[in-house]
Amino acid sequence: MPQQIEATDGGLVAMPRESLLALRTALFRDLGINAAALLQEAGYAGGQALFDALSNWLASRGLPSPESLPSSEFTDRASEFLRSVGWGAIEVGTLEAAATIDSADWAEADPAHPMEFPGCYYSAGLLTDLFGRIVGESVAVMEVECRSMGNDRCRFLVGAVDTMQRVYDAMGEGVTYEQALSNAASAVGS
Ligand SMILES: [Zn+2]
Fold first, then answer.
1. In angstroms, what is the span from residue 88 Cα to ligand 1's centroid?
2. To which H or E segment does residue 102 belong?
3. pLDDT per residue over 11-66, tens digit each?
4. What is the pLDDT of residues 162-179, one digit of tens each?
5. In angstroms, what is the span from residue 51 Cα to ligand 1's centroid?
6. pTM above 0.85, yes or no
7. Which among 55, 44, 53, 119 is positioned nearest to 86, based on CA atoms?
8. pLDDT by residue (tens digit) across 74-122?
9. How does DSSP classify residue 148?
10. In 3D, which of 77, 43, 84 has the Cα closest to residue 61?
């Protein structure tokens, strides 16, 4: 397997993971839950650069652009790319009306500093912009499982903004995300 440092190909900078985790910890320590929106905003701002880096990475391998890549190939290629730039390997799937992005080694997760809620907010913002570009429309991304809260993986749901809002609201009332997605699917169908 080629071991390449590719973060300098475009608008990316290789930041030590410890810095990201320390920044996250400090923001939550000083700002409480308000840190979440700031981290998301910062992540979102990086979506274009990550999309461009992914596009260049694919092109350098003679592969089509991210939005034209067949879905059968998307998971493996996106996973290889995200691992090569340090974020971690992913698996893409579907659950009801949402796509799922699962990672057992996502870099923003930090089991050493347990949280009571999914904590990869920077990533959620980053993936929101990235996947919005890939699918060509606005999406919402919500993390529903996280290694920072003791799960074996981080799981991000990617879906239409209104669907994700329904899921978010239902989860606030104590409904599981699986059930909330199922309810959202039947609500859309009715
Ligand atoms: Zn996470």
1. 11
2. strand 98-103
3. 898 899 999 999 999 999 999 999 999 999 999 999 999 999 999 999 999 999 99
4. 999 999 999 999 999 999
5. 21
6. yes
7. 53
8. 999 999 999 999 999 999 999 998 999 999 999 999 999 888 999 999 9
9. G
10. 77
Angle among Cα 141, 93, 110 to the nearest 5 degrees reads 55
Structure tokens at 61: 């391998």
Separation of CA 189 and ligand 1 centre (Å): 31
**CA atoms of 25 and 28, how far apart (whole Å):** 5
Phi and psi angles of residue 187, each rounded to the nearest 5 degrees, phi first: -65, -40
**Ligand 1 centre distance from Cα of residue 82 (Å):** 15
What spacing in Å lies between the alpha carbon of 62 and ligand 1's midpoint?
A: 32
* Tokens, residue 20: 């990201």
**Any idea what the Cα angle at residue 121 is, between residues 120 and 127, rounded to 5°?**
90
3-state SS, 53-84, equals: HHHHHHHCCCCCCHHHCCHHHHHHHHHHHHHH
